[in-house]
Write a structure and sequence with these properties.
alpha/beta, two-stranded antiparallel sheet, 21% strand
Length: 294
């Protein structure tokens, strides 16, 4: 993704403010991985690893984990945070060339990977090419897990939904400034992403969604991803949006406006809806794709 590779994009700010994934998500993935029996827990590869949030969690379960990302800045940030950690490796590269990226890795990784993950990354893949690479990389019995989360919600303040929708989608706010088609794919919780063909050596795919209670399609009812944020943290989170970065590149002078930049103007409107509250519960719908190599 071009924005994350930009020299003006802050990997440090991104790492501090983004939401984290709860243990329940990893339990869903691990249960699926173990479901056919004989699952191995040797090597996991995290594609689109960013600053390594998922890669580090996988290392708690797997003997070795490898984070792969096309952004040198992201990989550099991830590696610096884990200097000296055993069983963690980092590679700059794309999922579309994954076998080559891993080909020089010590220990014969290609064809012996037990789990490949892509958290908030698969919506950028060229899926025909990536599934072909994963077929080379993942051992029989191994698992591929993709997941993506949608637009932020404030469940305790349902009246804010129209304003949040307008900020994230509206033509006068961030709507035109997301990179497409990736944004539309991830807010659809990866529904447009195809599973690989079974005749190519894959099992039946499974989708799991964590949605607001009452919404159709949620295998596990209830929003899984939640984070309590003070206003400063919420503002920092909004400023990690690639669309904010692009908006300000394309709207010269936005950061010098007397009424504040695009994020400050939105927060001014939002506080009119929420009232004087010290913290916000922020939540995100989440979609997961799971499939096994056979």
């Amino acid at each position: 993704m071009a924005t994350f590779s930009s020299p003006t994009f802050s990997a440090t700010r991104y790492a501090l403010a983004r939401p984290t994934y709860p243990p329940t998500l990893f339990n869903v993935i691990y249960d699926f991985h173990a479901s056919t029996g004989g699952a191995k827990w040797g090597t996991a590869v995290d594609v689109g690893c960013g600053t390594g949030q998922v890669t580090r969690v996988l290392r708690e379960r797997f003997a070795r984990t490898i984070g792969v990302d096309p952004s040198e800045g992201m990989v550099r940030k991830a590696a610096a945070a884990q200097q000296g950690a055993e069983g963690l490796d980092w590679k700059v590269g794309d999922g579309e060339k994954l076998a080559d990226v891993l080909g020089g890795t010590e220990g014969g990784v290609v064809g012996n990977v037990d789990l490949v993950t892509a958290g908030q990354a698969a919506h950028w893949f060229d899926h025909g090419r990536v599934w072909s690479e994963l077929r080379k990389v993942v051992r029989p019995g191994g698992t591929v897990a993709y997941w993506g989360y949608g637009e932020a919600l404030l469940p305790s303040h349902p009246a804010t939904r129209p304003l949040l929708d307008a900020f994230q989608r509206g033509a006068d706010w961030l709507g035109p400034h997301w990179e497409q088609p990736g944004r539309s794919i991830v807010v659809s919780l990866l529904d447009p992403v195809p599973f690989p063909a079974r005749e190519d050596g894959w099992g039946e795919g499974r989708r799991v969604k964590f949605l607001r209670p009452g919404e159709n399609g949620g295998e596990c009812d209830g929003l899984l991803m939640k984070r309590e944020m003070d206003w400063g943290t919420f503002e920092a989170y909004l400023r990690t949006f690639s669309a904010v970065h692009t908006y300000q590149e394309q709207n010269a002078g936005d950061q010098e406006r007397a009424d504040g930049d695009v994020v400050s103007r939105f927060l001014e409107e939002l506080t009119k809806e929420t009232g004087d509250v010290g913290t916000l519960e922020v939540a995100w719908p989440l979609g997961v794709m799971l499939v096994k190599r056979v």
